[in-house]
Records
---
Amino acid sequence: MAEHHTVAQLDERALLERIFPRLGTADVPVGPGDDAAVIEAPDGRTVISIDTLVQDQDFRLEWASGYRSSGFDVGWKCAAQNVSDINAMGAVPTSLVISLTLPGNTPVRWVEDMADGLRTALHELGAERCAVVGGDLGRGAVLVVTAAVTGDLQGRAPVLRSGARPGDVVAVGGSLGRAAAGLALLEGTSGYGGMPPELQALAAAQSRPLPPLALGPRAAQAGAHAMMDISDGLIRDAGRLARASGAALALDYRRLDHFEAPLRQAALMLGADPRHWVLGGGEDHGLLAVFPPAAGLPEGFVHIGSVAEAAACPAEVTVDGEVPDVLGWDHFKG
Amino acid sequence: MAEHHTVAQLDERALLERIFPRLGTADVPVGPGDDAAVIEAPDGRTVISIDTLVQDQDFRLEWASGYRSSGFDVGWKCAAQNVSDINAMGAVPTSLVISLTLPGNTPVRWVEDMADGLRTALHELGAERCAVVGGDLGRGAVLVVTAAVTGDLQGRAPVLRSGARPGDVVAVGGSLGRAAAGLALLEGTSGYGGMPPELQALAAAQSRPLPPLALGPRAAQAGAHAMMDISDGLIRDAGRLARASGAALALDYRRLDHFEAPLRQAALMLGADPRHWVLGGGEDHGLLAVFPPAAGLPEGFVHIGSVAEAAACPAEVTVDGEVPDVLGWDHFKG
């Protein structure tokens, strides 16, 4: 079949036959093709989450900079943001089920690329036990990709948002601000094709994020009191963790400013403040974690502040003792 | 807040606070509000599936007949079609995670109704162990409701599509054709408001389907060789089961024609053939099951044919020995 064929020219069965061979084999009791899949839940529990990408809300097929999001990018991002939620519980991802809503003029090749992006992301992010075990296909006016993801706690307690206690150490694992800088570059008018490699790498942090999947289980093993995925920006997500814990997070910008270094060139080019990307940028899918003060931080985490009594602070989250002027991303208001 | 407010006037947190209290309490290790939920998987396995409803593809906010799909209808249908996939494996539904994509002008009241419809459907269908444990909210041009559902096999083997053997008895549990007749009525030009109650009941079979949740586990306990959800019409789904089993299904219309009786009034009014609804209509979410010949059928199933050698039949599915002229629904081609 020629490259320019669209999904409107195939029925459901024919399209599934194009997708599933690209996803590899799922080593599960029942994989794709039946009414439902069956996965192992070795410790008698299953972690589960769901996340959606909507065209023109969460990604664009064509950006102002001229960059075109490939199916590979969208498949990668779908896998990455879903497995990140499992990572944030201290668990290991075990399966994905995917629902695709496709406009009839979507090229079949785009859908095949999406399957490749899903599989490659799971492999390169280190989610080796995680496979696509099922899915659903339908038609719609815009592309919508939803995945539900499961995880295995390997006998450990889940690390919740609610366990931070005054005196605990606040830490970050992974990067901050890179995906936000990348978003600004993609939405800017400087042509993507002419950007130097270090700026293209920031754009890639937006379109193919790299959640640090080794760090979630490692933090759980190290006795983290609380943890969450930073998907909507450090300040907004720290506020959620603080609220869930009934405590305040006092962040120290001196410990955060090294995250600005890789963003300075993009900030200069766009006339932006890199501090806003560090504090307010989401979608890097790093981890915000809180550890008891006596324990050393596990490898991969950096100390960024401490947990305080809520009553002793002017806000749920402070930076250098002040209320930050950065809000971050509201998924719904956009 | 007044009834006419739209979701564009709320942020994610405020909207979630409107939805979650209506969903009841989930008796699970970790419920809504963290990065992911944690559910019990008592026999060391979890059944999982995903299904999406897209506005103007799977439901209409306003039909030609004047009927308006409520949020309650869409919530009910989302719950029903998802738990049906778990039922078809012989399992019991244990949790739902829901992703909602909402246009900004969606009334908040519509979303609250949807939550009510989800909860009421789970209760009235008998999915007592199943609760909504998590979700995701986002914006988009049309309403898209995706749910992933989990189930518990209670120590039994899953009942797959692939186990039918020549000589087995083919049976149906639940209704056939009612949802298809209801769809034709909703899309017809006769005003919904003026329809007699028995026709409005057919429309309800489309907007609030009633999958027979007791029958899936019962069929598994009775030793069913194969089973699936009839979501795309008896003939199409029977073809899938036949193909998965490497066998043919020989159906006997004499055993099916009693399904026509409740459809005759609608067929007469619309000039339709009720046989097409019985053989080709999906979305009742009844069960197609195959039992060994020696066993009696469990209560709730009716005998509709037998499994034959594929080589001995002119097609994967025959009705009274002939290839049926009814295709059923392709989710993707629509």
---
Amino acid sequence: MSEESRKERRVLVAVDESDESMYALSWSLKNIIFQNSSDTLILLYVKPHHHDAYATFDSTGIMDDPQTPGHVLSPEASAAIKKYSQDVVDCVLQKSKRMCKDLENVKVETQIESGNPKDVICEMSRKLNADLLVMGSHDYAAMKRAFFDSVSEYCSQNVKCPVLIVRKRKPYAGSGN
Amino acid sequence: MSEESRKERRVLVAVDESDESMYALSWSLKNIIFQNSSDTLILLYVKPHHHDAYATFDSTGIMDDPQTPGHVLSPEASAAIKKYSQDVVDCVLQKSKRMCKDLENVKVETQIESGNPKDVICEMSRKLNADLLVMGSHDYAAMKRAFFDSVSEYCSQNVKCPVLIVRKRKPYAGSGN
């Protein structure tokens, strides 16, 4: 299809602090998004639950009142952890936006959400009306299946739009055989 | 990235007789492959085992000798089934190539293999040095997980290059909520 006849697309890229996610964004910029298209690129960062793990120290669930019985972390420690969590988000999104700086005409938007990444990514694909979801993938499939939920697997089964899973390519052993 | 600076890519599209696979090819032609690129588009058809199901009627495994004891199908029936199987392949590849007829400069190649589709698709991605594998996906995930191996799930976990899974998009229920 010619460049001119392409419709405006909304490409959602799930980014996080992993190399795999940055590689997926980089690959998309080279292969999916083009400088002079009218695409919208949406960088989605989902703060996973472990970013809020300190909340488990607070048996009351009331984080803003250090006087509440059961509050274990000092206000300073809570604030420091919150700041670190926000710094990670800012750092990832700044890095992602720098990678997109050469795009002309393409609109680049950022979106920060909290929750279980696999659920939030699926939900945001729907809410943001994405035409394509791009995700990185770690290359430790066996370990991942044994110990973790696979976010990319879950999303590829549950998101309704096309899903591009970008795995960092390694040289094939025995290539050419 | 600008159109000029893109490197030649080898895009492997797994095609079969399903609407989902034709939709995946169509989506790729609109979104991944561009007319004046130097991409190579490889249309891969994998004859699944059930195409050769008639072989199970032959307890000897010697299909070419109708005199061999245990041969149940007549030579005519075997030939008819073989011809039907080949007709399906030809029909899918002809339809796929017609869909690509407007591509200029893009090289379109076809490849026919036999075996278990998920294994063959992974193997051919490696052998053909694909930069991207595109697959369709049926939208009956729950049933598929219960009764069938999912080819697209398996490949997305085992192929080393980026994998694009194209699901036929349906209007979202409750969109905009």
